[in-house]
């Protein structure tokens, strides 16, 4: 009896590393029908809020609900655009300023579609996904992040 394949998740604990991003790109080199890739990398900013500087964001999520929403967003993108591949990864836990918290990667036979699809995807993710960020300030205080 074979073990069931673990369910693929869109979440990564902590920041998304350059190595992870590079490996994701490298895995697509054998897919020779792809003519274009486009990548969005969301990075934590050192925003100044009420005179305090953001040092990190602590991400939490309603994981099951968020995974379902990621799936629905993926399906909508595949229905709307001629895509070959589409990957969404979001951090959970603490991500410091300057580190990557969101990685969206699209591939298609032609370049124009990857620009349009990526913009659609990022806007849908920000608007619809049950992922929450607590902005942690340098003085150890915090505030809940509002998606803009």
From TrEMBL:
Pathway(s) annotated for this protein in UniProt: Cofactor biosynthesis; molybdopterin biosynthesis
EC numbers for this chain: 2.8.1.12
Single GO MF descriptor: molybdopterin synthase activity
Gene3D superfamilies documented for this protein: Molybdopterin biosynthesis MoaE subunit
Keywords noted in UniProt: Molybdenum cofactor biosynthesis
Pfam families: MoaE
Family annotation (InterPro entries): MoaE_sf (IPR036563), Mopterin_biosynth_MoaE (IPR003448)
Entry's Gene Ontology BP terms: Mo-molybdopterin cofactor biosynthetic process
Annotated catalysed reactions: 2 [molybdopterin-synthase sulfur-carrier protein]-C-terminal-Gly-aminoethanethioate + cyclic pyranopterin phosphate + H2O = molybdopterin + 2 [molybdopterin-synthase sulfur-carrier protein]-C-terminal Gly-Gly + 2 H(+)
Subunit and interaction comment: Heterotetramer of 2 MoaD subunits and 2 MoaE subunits. Also stable as homodimer. The enzyme changes between these two forms during catalysis.
Family: Belongs to the MoaE family.
Record protein name field: Molybdopterin synthase catalytic subunit
Species of the source: Flavobacterium sandaracinum
Taxonomy of the source species: Bacteria, Pseudomonadati, Bacteroidota, Flavobacteriia, Flavobacteriales
């Amino acid at each position: 009896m074979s073990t069931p394949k673990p369910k693929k998740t869109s979440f990564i604990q902590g920041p998304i590393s350059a190595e992870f991003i590079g490996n994701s790109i490298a895995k697509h080199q054998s897919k020779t029908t792809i003519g274009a890739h486009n990548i969005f990398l969301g990075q934590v900013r050192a925003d100044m809020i009420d005179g305090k500087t953001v040092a990190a964001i602590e991400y939490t999520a309603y994981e099951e609900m968020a995974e379902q929403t990621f799936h629905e967003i993926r399906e909508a993108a595949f229905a709307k655009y001629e895509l070959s591949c589409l990957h969404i990864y979001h951090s959970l836990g603490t991500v410091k300023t300057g580190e990557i918290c969101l990685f969206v990667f699209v591939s298609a036979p032609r370049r124009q579609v990857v620009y349009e699809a990526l913009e659609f995807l990022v806007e849908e993710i920000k608007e619809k996904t049950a992922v929450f960020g607590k902005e942690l300030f340098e003085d150890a205080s915090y505030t809940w992040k509002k998606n803009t």
